[in-house]
Automatic annotation (TrEMBL):
Protein name: Big-1 domain-containing protein
Domain of life: Bacteria
Length: 123
């Protein structure tokens, strides 16, 4: 008798939970989706690319490029991957992630064995 009662009670709880979910959220579970909060999403307009050295680099000399990732509200964005590319030279660590410790700023090191003007972009 106890096993039958537990089985019926378990089925009842499952059906009740499904019904309560549909009523509370007013749509089936299959139509629910988790959306990212726009306040924490990186913004191309608010994020910054900062150079520490405005002088031309010598061949094989390193430069530091800081990328400050900001949200639409101007707050730092954490745990976001940043990829740095350059049209001339090499990025020593091309992909890094922001963190709480570095306040949404990642530091890349670039170098080049060829003289010239480079276009640097971060995504």
């Amino acid at each position: 008798m106890d096993k039958k009662f537990l089985a019926v009670f378990t089925v009842f709880l499952l059906i009740f939970s499904l019904f309560a979910t549909i009523v509370i959220f007013n749509k089936p579970i299959s139509q629910m989706s988790a959306r990212a909060n726009p306040a924490t999403q990186p913004s191309g307009e608010r994020s910054l690319l900062l150079l520490t050295n405005f002088q031309p680099l010598k061949i094989n000399e390193q430069a530091v490029v800081n990328v400050a990732v900001r949200s639409e509200s101007g707050e730092p964005s954490f745990n976001k991957k940043v990829t740095l590319t350059t049209s001339l030279g090499n990025v020593i660590e091309p992909e890094l992630a922001t963190s709480v410790n570095n306040k949404g700023v990642v530091s890349f090191h670039i170098t080049s064995s060829t003289p010239g003007t480079a276009i640097i972009s971060a995504m």
